[in-house]
Amino acid sequence: MQELTRLQNERVILMGNEAIVRGALESGVQFVSTYPGTPASEIGNLFSEIAKNNDSIYFEFSTNEKTALEAAIGASFSGLKCLVAMKNFGMNVALESLIPFGYTGSKGATVIIVADDPSCHSSAQSEENSRGFAYLSHIPVLEPSDAQECLEFVRLGFQISKRFHLPVIVRTTTRVAHQKAVVQTSGLPKVRPSDAEFIKDKHRFVTMPPRVMEMHQELLDKISIIKLFVEDSDVNYVYGDLSTNTNTKRAGIITSGVAYLHVLEALRMLGKDVPVLKLGFFYPLPEQKIKDFIKPLKKVLIVEELDPYLEKEVAALAKSANPKLVIYGKNILPETGEMNPEIVAGAVAAVVRKKYVVPQSMVEGVKHFPRFCSGAATCPYWRVFAAIKKAVPENTVFGGDIGCYMIAALPPHNLYDYMFCMGSSIGIGHGIAKATNGQQKVVTLIGDGTFFHSGIEALLNAVYNQSNLLAIIVDNRITAMTGHQPNPGMGKAAETDAAPEIKIEEVARALGVKNIKIVDPVDGFDELVTSIQEYYPKNEISVIIAKRICALLEKRQKQ
Length: 559
Known about the structure:
Elements: H1 2-6, E1 11-15, H2 16-26, E2 31-34, H3 41-50, E3 58-61, H4 65-77, E4 81-87, H5 88-104, E5 109-116, H6 133-137, E6 141-142, H7 147-164, E7 168-173, H8 174-178, E8 180-184, H9 202-205, H10 211-231, E9 237-239, E10 251-256, H11 259-270, E11 276-279, E12 281-283, H12 287-294, E13 299-303, H13 309-321, E14 326-328, H14 341-352, H15 381-391, E15 397-400, E16 418-419, H16 424-435, E17 442-447, H17 448-464, E18 470-475, H18 504-510, E19 515-519, H19 525-535, E20 542-547, H20 551-558
Parallel strand pairs: 2-3, 2-4, 4-5, 5-7, 6-7, 10-11, 10-13, 13-14, 15-16, 15-17, 17-18, 18-20, 19-20
Antiparallel strand pairs: 1-8, 6-12, 9-11
C-alpha cells in the first residue's frame, strides 16, 4: 500500500488490482466506493488503507453495489473524480442506476471497474459476461489484458470520462485482476482536499420525460463522437505484419483482454507468425480498423472468453468489408470457462492447418471441496449446521445464500436445496412457502454482510406478506468471504473505528418480526438447537441470529 502511494516514474511488480488503484491515484481520484466482491476485492482493501492517511480521497465500503454507484454519481455530479469497483454480479445490482447515469453523464469523471470471473473461481450463481451491459447502457468499455494496461486503461478511462462527460467501464477478469507483472508508473498529481459543490441543473440531472428522450439521443450522439476517438486510439493495434502474411494463407486473429496473452503464447508454441488485431476498446469498437484488418484476409479467428460478442460484430462488418471471409470462433473454441494457451493453440492450428494435439495434464490435481476453517481457527458455522441437522426433520426445504456459509451446499453438509444470489435465500424461500400454502417448511440461511446488502427488503416482503419461514442469520461480525471488510453491523467503517452499529435484531424487529433470538452457536449450541425446534413449527416468520465472531478475525485481533 505504501509503495503504491510513493512511487514516482518507477518500474515495479504489481498485481492487476494494484495497478488499477495506482492508475486511479495517477488520475487524481477523489472519491472511491465499492462493495467487496472477488476478484475485485483488493481494490477496496487498498483504498481503505490509503484513504486513512490521505485527506484528498474519500473511501467507503457501501452497503451494496447500487448504493456504491449512487454515492459516486452524487460525488460526480458535485465535480469529483470517482472510482467505483465491483464484481460482475454487482453490476446486476447497480444496473438500475447505471443506465440513467449514461443519460445524465458524469460532471466530474467516473470510472467503473467490473471484474468478471470466467470458470467461476470465486462465484456461484452464473458465469456472467459483463461486456453485454455495454449494448444496454451505451457506456464505453475498455478491456485490459495485463497489469500495465490496468493502470493505463484506468487513466484513459478518466480522460475519456472527463472529455466526453460520460462514465467509463473498465472490465477485467480474474486472470487480469490477479496476475502480476512489471508495471511502469508515472508521477502522482497533487490533489487538494475536496472543495466540491453540487450546482443545480434540472435540465441535466432530472431524468423525466420528455427531457429523458432528449438525453437518450444526446447519449447516442456522444457515442458517435467517441467512435472517431476510438478509431485513432493506440489501445487498438495490430501485432505482426499483414503484408508478410503468406505462409498462413492470409489468416488473422482478432482478440481482446487476457485472451490476447493466450494468443501470443499459442503462436509461440506453434512457431507461427499470424497477425493479431488486439482491441483495447470493447465498446464502441473501432469498426474501420476491424474492416481494414479483415479486408485482405481469407479467414480470421476470433478469440474471446464466454459469449461471442466480438465474433458477431466481426461477422456483421465482414458483410461489407469482406463477404467471402471465413470466420472461426465458437465453432472451434469453448463458450464456457477460461481460455488458456493450449486451447487457443488448438484453435489456431485448426485455422492455419498445422497438426497440433492439445496436451493432457501429466499430473492431475487432487480433487477436494472447499471447507469451513478448522483446527486452531474453527469456524462457528460448523456448529450452526450441526444444530440445524439435529433440530429439523429431513423433509425441510433449505435455502442458501452468498457468503462463507455457501460451502454448506457441498460435502460433508450437502444442505441446500436452492442457492441463487445475494439476499435470495429469504426471497425465494418466501415464494416456496406461499406456493405450498406453508405446508413445506423453509429454513433459510443468510450472513450478516449479505443481510445488509440485500436481505433486509426480502425479510420485509416476507413479513408484509405473512410468510412462515425460519430465517437463520449467521452473524460472524465481518464480511468474511471477500477478505474481512467491515459491514454496518460491526460498529466500524473503512476510515474510522467508530461508526453506528446497526443491530440486526433491531432491524428485524422494526420490520415486524415478532419471534427473534440471538444465540452463540458455540457456547450456546444446545440453546441454538432448542431455539430452532421452538421456532420451526410456528406459522409466522421467525429469525434466529447465530452470533459468533469469525475465528480467523478473532485470531488476528489477538495477535
